[in-house]
Amino acid sequence: MSTGVIALLVAVVGVAGTLLAPITTAWVSSRSRRQEFELQQDSDRAKRHIDDAQANLERRRDAYVALNSGARRYRFLMMEDLYAVRRGAGPDPATELARVEFQDTYAQAQMLVPDDVLRPCQTVRVALAEAKKLMDPLAEDATHDQQKWQEAHTFLIDMWEPIGVMQLAMRQDLGISAPPRP
Length: 182
Description:
Elements: H1 3-86, H2 93-110, H3 115-140, H4 146-158, H5 160-174
């Protein structure tokens, strides 16, 4: 090749490089911005996922506190009513309010808590309903049968077992160590 052709090729490559440099720079810059945008989206998505998981944990914890305290309160008030019946007094209206509150809390929990926690909660709910079935005839009949009173008393005392199982399931779901068993 002659020097004239080489000079012409060098000039063409130089002009093409000069003309293509801004296009190449814009393309590289656009690609870099797109990668930064995708990284920011991934970071935002991960943060939203963490925030959602934290909010879900807090909602479950609130539901567990309400279920646990509601079940314990309802059971306690039924025990108080049982002793009131023994003394000849009637049941406290607060017991019915506690029952309704517990049922409402349980209904909300059905839409929120996982099945492995809901099963022990269901057991407690059924046990509380059974205790109410034992209590109602005693409250209606002033000449209560001592054997039926004792049966209701034993049933209410034994309710600590399903309540403890429910508490354990809740604590395990929240990642808390199991409470010591007395």
